[in-house]
């Protein structure tokens, strides 16, 4: 436990209490010991009693910095779970976080460029265009070709603030693993470790530029998604220069309606973009909150998304991708037994699970969702059902899927806002069916084989030797397994014998004690005590050594 994490823990607690967040929890949910602990922190008073609860939460998260702002952004996407006041305040965390001074921004940009801004850019605007969790964005024009660009510069000291929070999260995860009954299932330290990797990569804007260029290239001819061009020659670790886009924020429903946007197509394209990135490209934008998504003003009837901020991206292993696709398809086909089998095969749930009970639980969760438009699905209830089933069947959290699950939440929340009649499943099904066909059909297998043909040809001469070696290895392995089994059985036999003798010795000693209470049974008592000693010693000596297993 480091001093840093303790200090940060205190800061988080103090800020939350000074904004009176403790008062937002209904009294009946506060146990007595927590109420007493709160009373002990008497000097941390609510300093903003007049503010609404949504504003208090926003200001707390904003004060605490990047990691907390990101959490607020995530909450803000679930308008179906928030009241208007909370939704309005939390959505400001997407791009209206208080900016830092333009002088500091200039200084940092020039430090990164190694020359005055005016050498490379015209019309640099000192008033930031937007300011978000980790950075601030200023507009300018490239001197070389007069292109409108934006300069995204990291916030001062953002690395330190993120480090402190990650350390605190690691500490809490370790405590959680010791104290929570569900710890082994929640994989807290692994999830935090994954988050650490992700967030630190986001702080390297050069990586963000590379991610953006990769997604831009894979959607080069797409009508669904446009990613602005990155000027890598001017980009550095703390500075990203890219084409300035002029779209309508995806949450500005009034402006989208005014330009006659085809909302149905827009929502369907959101689903298409998500599945294309996950399954075709295996490289997905994993920070798709509304502040990072715009809609082009050019062809409202054939609407195109514009995506920015590719700092957080995800990809899956081939096996996870395949299991996921099969899971989705089984869900679309109402084949709940298949979902249960897939969970067991992939190891996401124990092989000892009662498959019939598991299937019944999955049916209960999935049936209310099947074939329904988003508007008819209660997301909150689905989430509660999912948590309940996960706990009941001891489903282990898969850290590698957390980013994807977060992205799916964003996509679902977005679809709900844009076009609540969207049938997410009907839109996704043909896409996944085609993808599966491309993975497992005869043609796909032939293609994969032909791709690997030179490699296979190369290894062909080594084959007989490899086959022979493997057979020998297999036989040795079987012998070893048999030996291990024999040793284990012999260990168990010795252990039972030793327990029996020690037990017998115990019984005899009790009998000896009882007999010794009377003078006329003193001799049998001595005999029994001696026998007990012999059996005890024998039992002790026959105890097998631990390393004999
Ligand atoms: N290429 C661009 N053209 C126009 N505006 C942009 C561009 N890039 C960013 N912005 C504006 O700047 C805001 C913040 O940018 P960005 O999301 O990249 O920053 P961030 O600090 O990484 O944000 P987040 O909190 O989402 O991680 C965006 O919401 C958008 O309003």
Account of the 3D structure:
With 549 residues, this protein is α+β, with helices and mostly antiparallel strands. It folds into 4 domains: 3-94, no CATH class; 102-313, Orthogonal Bundle (Transferase(Phosphotransferase), domain 1), CATH 1.10.510; 318-452, no CATH class; 463-548. 60% of the residues lie in helices and 7% in strands. It contains 22 helices and 11 strands. The strands form 3 sheets. Strands 1, 2, 3, 4 and 6 form a 5-stranded antiparallel beta sheet that branches. Strand 3 and strand 4 form a beta hairpin. Helix 3 packs parallel to helix 5 (84-91), helix 13 packs parallel to helix 19 (424-440) and helix 16 (355-366) runs antiparallel to helix 17 (379-392). The longest helix has 54 residues, at 463-516. The radius of gyration is 32 Å and the shape is globular. One of its GO terms (biological process) is ubiquinone biosynthetic process. Belongs to the protein kinase superfamily. ADCK protein kinase family. It comes from Paraferrimonas haliotis.
Structure summary:
The protein has 549 residues and is an alpha+beta fold. It folds into four domains: 3-94, no CATH class; 102-313, Transferase(Phosphotransferase), domain 1, CATH 1.10.510; 318-452, no CATH class; 463-548.
Biggest beta sheet summary:
5 strands, antiparallel
Principal-axis shape: globular
Helix content: 55-70%
Unreliable stretches (pLDDT < 50, length at least 5) are none
Would you report the number of β strands? Answer: 11
Q: What value does the Rg take, in angstroms?
A: 32 Å
- At the first level of CATH, the class of the largest domain is Mainly Alpha
Mean pLDDT, as a whole number?
A: 87
Question: What molecules are bound to this protein?
Answer: adenosine-5'-triphosphate
Q: Which secondary-structure class do the elements indicate?
A: alpha+beta
Count of DSSP-assigned helices: 22
CATH hierarchy: architecture of the largest domain = Orthogonal Bundle
Instruction: Report the CATH topology name of the largest domain.
Output: Transferase(Phosphotransferase), domain 1
**Terminal residue distance:** 37 Å
* Tally of distinct domains: 4
Give the strand content. Answer: 5-15%
